[in-house]
Amino acid sequence: MNYSYLNDNQVKAVKQIEGPLLILAGAGSGKTSTMTSRIAYMLECGIKPYSILAVTFTNKAANEMKNRVFDLTGENNGLWIMTFHSMCLRILRYNSDVIGYKPGFVVYDESDKKTALRSIIKENDLDDKIYTVAYLNKIISGCKEKAMSPEEYLKENDGYDIRSKKVYSAYKSYATLLRKNNAMDFDDLLLNCVKLFEKEDQVLSYYQNKFKYIMVDEYQDTNFLQYKIIQYLSKTYRNLCVVGDDDQCIYEWRGADIRNILNFEKDFPEATIIKLEQNYRSDNNILNLANSVIKNNVGRKRKTLWSQKNVGDKITYARLDNEKAEARYIASEICSLKEKGYEYKEIAILYRKNVLSRTLEECFPNYNIPYRVLSGKRYYDKKEIRDMLAYMRLIENPEDDFAFIRVVNEPKRGIGKTTIDKISEIAKDNGVGCFETLKSEEVLSKLTKKSKPLAIKFINTIETCRSQMEETTLEDLYDALLIETDYLKTLEMQNTIEADSKIENIMEFKSVIAGFQGKSDEFLVEEEMMENGIESPKRTELGLFLENITLTAEIDNHDEKEDAVVLMTMHSAKGLEFPAVFMPGMENGVFPGNNSFEKDKLEEERRLCYVGITRAKKKLYLTSAAERMLYGKRDYMRESLFLEEMDRSLMNGDRLDKEGHKKYLKPDDGYYGTSPQKPFDSLKYAKNGVKNKKFDNDNIICGDIVKHQKFGKGIVLEVDAKTITILFDDYGKKKIGKGFVKLEKIGE
Predict the structure, then answer these.
(1) Bridge partner residues of 621 (DSSP)
(2) How far is CA 710 from CA 405, 702, 744, in A?
(3) What's 355's DSSP letter?
(4) CA-wise closest residue to 636 among 674, 590, 604, 602
(5) What is the mean pLDDT of residues 518-536?
(6) Given a cut of 60, is residue 503 above it in pLDDT?
(7) Which of 89, 292, 357, 631 has the most CB atoms within 10 Å of its CB?
(8) Is 32 a catalytic residue?
(9) Is 615 assigned a catalytic role?
(10) Which stretch of DSSP H or E encloses residue 442?
(11) Nearest-CA neighbor of 672 among 591, 595, 589?
């Protein structure tokens, strides 16, 4: 095979297939080409496809790798090229009984998980203002990432304070609920795979001997569990190739551990290190600017990006008066780029905080600039799609109580919340599922004359579809659901634009079903398992389809065909590239944010800046505002310390924040902080301002003459514990909350 399309270091990486290998791949350095060519080379050397495992973080990356390998070799059958979660799910499917699960377990996505946590909050009588879904989700997910059980969590938190005990009870209840529903969440897929390997030596040995060659993409983003899984699998042959860039580790806040890549040589002292530093994306000025920033990080492996492309335009920097002037400046520059031949879709605005998009969104219509914000609801989160998926989940697994609760009264069958709660209570007492409970005469006999036949039809529809799973196609099964549940008919009867849109969505779902080809891939795995004496679990096409949908976790709503400027956070932009990029809000307190000035957090923020810069191919604009309205308060803003670190010879534009200005600043303005670098915390100030905004007006009594900020002068008629009644000269009689506004006493 001819590898002339690769550079020298890429070829070295491709042909280094024995022993541990660390490929340090800088931004835009062609790592995907290197990885896929490496797989092609292994196949060319006679290595069996089923001996190769390539793990990625997104379905999009996995599919791209599969397609590229096929383009290079004409085959990709037998290769395990997939995400961590897909790999763990496949392994667990064949061994679920070892860790106490039935073979047909379901996987809960984030939406299902939040639904479950809401029920746990209610069941445990927790204050949902304190123990929010987001709060519990974060703690439980964090515990699972560290392989920490509910009991271990309680022990680590000493178990003395009330909050940790309540979190423990919620965590334990959630774990029990998942077991009852024969379900795992995404964290469980990783955790249970580790438990499986630690509990069953025979299973671990099988996969250690199967995967003689392992590759891991984006290794800098692996967490503790993912690290352990790879360590277990690679222990026998040690032919582990990890690809990553420590300078692009920007997900530590969700569990990524940069030490995994930094300490690779400690784990594998015999490792070979190859650096990919030649960039194929950006002009040299952009790369040199990125290098000038990231070199300030201490915890990194040294590398310097370079390119054979042009030097390119200098980076444009503008310091504007305020956030509105900044938005107008960006809009006018976009119009100039458009006149020079750029398409709107070639332009991206990357920001550190979502709140920065507001002024841009308000400004762009005035310039007729089309835009889209990449944070919208994904297709699979639309209500009608989740309803149909819940129906399909209930057919696949009648024990899935959350699927039952979602659809038993969708469309309306006269089975309201009170009835559903009663069914759930009976089901819990009898130790069976809600669907099985609904079938009992005890429940059916108590339904109304109108709802009973509808409930019976619902039961018959689920059972009929379930009995026909093996005899009918997935598409026919879906059509039967639409008709027999009256879901489609109910939407048609509404005869509204919203209903028509929902109909379009559920009909478009047929395209998703038609494009599903997972069964054929799974057959290859089953054949291999059978050849090795491993009994294959009975799988249905519906079950495989639902797994495929659940594992499509990333929100990839960046439509490259739509001609619109893209607005997105820097975290969302990783992996993307644009000819022109704007980075607004280059100010201390915004980017880097206030929390970044705490110990060890500034380096990740600097890596994020590096990622933002290296998204640009030709044009890069940096902007800051001298003052900015944030959280209802206008602050003076100091330019980002990242701007101070940048090589000024690569930039056009000038700083307004001169050293001599500092002596005029006061402790309550935007430059002030507890250290010379840390900025004033606008968000904390705003929150405290709201919390402290309380007026007692205890000195006001009947007969007092007072002045109200809005209503003016008036006489107090009545005062009680909570309110003050005032007769105003111009507005008449008003009853005002006692602590709501400050009244000025001007007479008696």
Answers:
(1) 316, 582
(2) 50, 20, 12
(3) G
(4) 590
(5) 59
(6) yes
(7) 89
(8) yes
(9) yes
(10) helix 441-444
(11) 589
Interatomic CA distance for residues 350 and 581, integer angstroms: 7
Of residues 595 and 378, more confidence is placed in 595
Instruction: Out of 12, 15, 32, 479, pick the active-site residue.
Output: 32
Residue 88: both structure tokens together: 């763990």
Candidates 31, 113, 212, 413; catalytic one? 31
Q: Is 125 left (phi over 0), alpha (psi -120 to 50) or beta?
A: left
| 402-450 confidence digits (pLDDT tens) | 999 999 999 999 999 899 999 999 998 888 999 999 999 989 998 999 9
Q: Is 218 one of the catalytic residues?
A: yes
Beta bridge mates, 619: 580
Q: Which candidate in 145, 185, 187, 217 is catalytic? A: 217
Q: Which of 569, 580, 564, 581 is nearest to 372 (CA)?
A: 564
Q: Is position 248 annotated as part of the catalytic site? A: yes
Q: 80, 62 in Cβ contact below 8 A?
A: no
CA end-to-end span of the chain: 98
**Tokens coding 694:** 């309380």
Distance separating alpha carbons of residues 639 and 649, to the nearest angstrom: 18
Q: Which two tokens stand for residue 656?
A: 């307004």
**329's tokens:** 């400046």
Beta pairing class for 347-351 and 578-583: parallel
212, 51 Cβ separation under 8 angstroms: yes
Q: Is the pLDDT of residue 191 over 80?
A: yes
Give the H or E element holding residue 333: helix 323-339
Contacts of 158 by beta carbon, 8 Å cutoff, 6+ apart: 164
Residues sharing a CB contact under 8 Å with residue 584, sequence separation 6 or more, in sequence order: 326, 327, 330, 349, 351, 356, 360, 623, 624
Distance CA 94, CA 529 (A): 9
What percent of the chain is helix, strand and coil (3-state, nearest 5)? 50, 15, 35
**Active site includes 464?**
no
- List of residues 6+ apart from 695 with CB closer than 8 A: 738, 739, 740, 741, 742, 743
Single-letter code of the amino acid located at 547: E
Q: What is the pLDDT of residue 462?
A: 94
- Residue among 109, 218, 333, 704 flagged as catalytic: 218
Tokens at 387, concatenated: 């309803």
Query: Average pLDDT in the 633-641 region?
Result: 87
Instruction: Please state, in angstroms and rounded to a whole number, the distance separating the CA atoms of residues 645 and 610.
Output: 12
Residue 399 in tokens = 């024990």
Question: Annotated catalytic residue: which of 66, 615, 619, 638?
Answer: 615
Tokens of 114: 């939040």
Q: What is the pLDDT of residues 540-590, one digit of tens each?
A: 888 888 888 887 644 444 566 789 999 999 998 988 999 999 999 999 989
Beta bridge partner(s), residue 351: 569
Quote the DSSP letter at residue 429: H
The answer to whether 292 and 604 have CB atoms below 8 angstroms apart is no
Residue 606 designated active-site: no
Cα 542 off chain centre by: 26
C-alpha to C-alpha distance for 469 and 464, rounded to whole angstroms: 9
The one catalytic residue among 36, 83, 220, 248: 248
3-state secondary structure 616-685: EEEEEEEEEECEEEECCEEEECCECHHHHHCCHHHEECCCCCCHHHHHHCCCCCCCCCCCCCCCCCHHHH
What does DSSP say about strands 80-83 and 52-56: parallel, antiparallel, or unpaired? Answer: parallel
In whole angstroms, what is the distance from residue 35 CA to residue 13 CA?
Answer: 8
Calpha distance 522→89 (Å, rounded): 12
- Model pLDDT for residues 124-167, shown as the tens digit of each residue: 999 988 898 989 999 999 999 999 999 999 988 876 678 899 99
- Residue carrying structure tokens 């790369």: 287
Phi-psi region of 57 (alpha: psi -120 to 50; beta: other; left: phi over 0): alpha
How many Cα atoms are found within 13 Å in the side-chain-facing hemisphere of 511? 6
| Tokens describing residue 524 | 């290859």
* 317 contacts 647 by C-beta, under 8 angstroms: no
